[in-house]
């Protein structure tokens, strides 16, 4: 998400806002899992407490987003008052998480003129993640898309329901939200990857702060100090383990100048350090066994999220149950591969061969193994020179034109992604490298 004040561009097809790298030295597939797991535990708790908790959480849900890709038979969210006994969702899941940088209506530290001038209205999709859960529920992948990626944005339905907003063959990825909301972000990711996206959620700054507080903070490892005077509040974190809570956690996730090489690409790998630490805490750190924390987490998330009308409370529980037995080693965070834009050194474009390999893995629904590094702002202190894949067996990725969206046949054979694709698993205990 953006970290320096600027005035938000509202007009469709408006000139892309500049977010270049510094000359020297830039929450949330896990958010869906955490939210769904929280609701799932509440449902199976003591009847009277669970009934109140579910009712209270349901009141916070904002099912206001209508996607082009719908789920057959889904009824509008918000109309279901009683959650039935449910099992894991059938088949795979593609869930888009969009983080808006809009400060509108947040109040508090975002109420100043400078913050409001930085971004208001719909805002920009400065954090965009696609959660893909395999059809057999044995693996999952979270793909982070660079905000400065130059892509083709398709024509999108206007949010007022009147006509469409024209597409463009070359635009900054993070302008899709301001053009026509989350549905436009989803259509852009669909065009980029070849997958169909029937579920989506939008989260704001306050949601990230509230959720980190609800779990009692997230402990992250810093290989070096992290300092960033441009975030609100500013960061000044020492080397070692740091427990990040509330607005400080948000500043850590937003920091660009303080991590890696000062670019948005570095920021993505820093976010993966945080999200993997959050996933480990939820799964192994006692959060799943603490109904009060889970309830607070569910409340914090739903109160600050807008959901697609395909994401009712039952569906979120089903998605959580689908991930329950996946295992942290089989949840892979990756950065969408890119290279410097030949037309602008402050922008990036898709790295065609690597992007095709990633898209093929998504469309064909195969598990993946990383062979590259952890990214510009992260390091794995336990990493070996060449990652050693574990079972299932690995087949080399073969770049090809992404297939049309279809129902793929489940497979147990993992695909080794090209070394240029960076990322980590949720099980890897990585550390952030500061830009100091």
Please give the radius of gyration in angstroms. 20 Å
- The total beta strand count reads 23
Q: Number of helical segments? A: 10
Strand content: 15-25%
Low-confidence stretches: 1-50, 76-85, 385-411
The named CATH superfamily? LCP protein
Helix content: 25-40%
What strand order characterises the main sheet? 1-14-9-2-3-4-15-22
Biggest sheet character: 8 strands, mixed
Could you name the CATH topology? Aminopeptidase
Q: Name the shape in a single word.
A: globular
Distance between the termini: 20 Å
Per CATH, which architecture?
3-Layer(aba) Sandwich
* CATH class annotation: Alpha Beta
The chain-level structural class is: alpha/beta
Mean pLDDT metric: 77
Give the domain tally: 1
In short:
This protein is of the alpha/beta class and about 425 residues long. It is built from 10 helices and 23 strands.
In words, what does this structure look like?
The protein has 436 residues and is an alpha/beta fold. The chain has one domain: LCP protein (Aminopeptidase, 3-Layer(aba) Sandwich), CATH 3.40.630.190. It has helices spanning 29-43, 47-60, 113-118, 176-193, 205-214, 246-254, 264-284, 291-303, 313-323, 352-363, and strands spanning 63-65, 93-100, 125-133, 140-144, 150-153, 156-157, 164-165, 168-172, 199-203, 218-222, 226-228, 235-237, 240-244, 305-308, 331-335, 338-341, 344-350, 368-369, 378-379, 394-396, 414-416, 423-425, 431-432. The strands form seven sheets. Strands 1-14-9-2-3-4-15-22 form an eight-stranded mixed β-sheet, with helices on both faces. A hairpin with a 6-residue loop joins strand 6 and strand 7. Helix 1 (29-43) packs across helix 8 and helix 5 (205-214) runs antiparallel to helix 8 (291-303). It is globular, with a radius of gyration of 20 Å.
């Amino acid at each position: 998400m953006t970290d320096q004040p600027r005035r938000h561009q509202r007009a469709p097809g408006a000139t892309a806002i500049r977010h270049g790298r510094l000359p020297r030295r830039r929450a949330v597939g896990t958010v869906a899992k955490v939210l769904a797991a929280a609701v799932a535990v509440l449902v199976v708790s003591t009847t009277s407490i669970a009934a109140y908790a579910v009712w209270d959480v349901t009141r916070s849900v904002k099912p206001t987003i209508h996607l082009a890709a719908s789920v057959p038979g889904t009824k509008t969210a918000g109309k279901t008052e009683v959650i039935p006994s449910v099992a894991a969702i059938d088949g795979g899941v593609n869930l888009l998480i969009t983080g808006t940088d809009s400060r509108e209506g947040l109040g508090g530290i975002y109420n100043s003129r400078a913050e409001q001038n930085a971004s208001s209205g719909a805002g920009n999709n400065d954090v965009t993640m696609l959660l893909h859960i395999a059809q057999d529920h044995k693996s999952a992948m979270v793909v982070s898309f660079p905000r400065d990626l130059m892509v083709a944005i398709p024509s999108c339905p206007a949010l007022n329901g009147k006509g469409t907003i024209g597409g463009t063959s070359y635009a900054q990825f993070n302008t899709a939200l301001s053009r026509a909301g989350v549905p436009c972000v989803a259509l852009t990711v669909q065009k980029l990857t070849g997958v169909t996206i029937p579920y989506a959620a939008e989260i704001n700054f306050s949601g990230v702060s509230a959720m980190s507080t609800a779990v009692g903070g997230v402990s992250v490892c810093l290989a070096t100090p992290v300092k960033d005077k441009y975030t609100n509040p500013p960061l000044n974190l020492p080397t070692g383990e740091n427990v990040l809570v509330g607005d400080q956690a948000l500043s850590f996730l937003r920091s660009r100048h303080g991590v890696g090489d000062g670019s948005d690409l570095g920021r993505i790998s820093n976010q993966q350090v945080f999200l993997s630490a959050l996933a480990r805490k939820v799964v192994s750190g006692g959060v799943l066994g603490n109904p009060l924390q889970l309830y607070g987490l569910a409340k914090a998330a739903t109160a600050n999220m807008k959901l697609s009308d395909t994401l009712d409370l039952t569906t979120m529980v089903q998605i959580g149950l689908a991930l329950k037995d996946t295992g942290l080693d089989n949840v892979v965070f990756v950065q969408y591969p890119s290279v410097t834009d030949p037309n602008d050194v402050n922008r990036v474009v898709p790295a065609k061969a690597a992007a095709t390999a990633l898209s093929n893995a998504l469309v064909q629904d195969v598990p993946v193994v990383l062979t590259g590094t952890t990214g510009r702002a992260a390091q794995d202190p336990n990493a070996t020179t060449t990652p050693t894949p574990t079972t299932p067996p690995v087949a080399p990725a073969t770049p090809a034109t992404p297939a049309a969206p279809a129902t793929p046949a489940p497979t147990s054979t993992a695909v080794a992604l090209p070394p240029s694709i960076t990322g980590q698993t949720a099980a890897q205990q990585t550390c952030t490298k500061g830009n100091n």
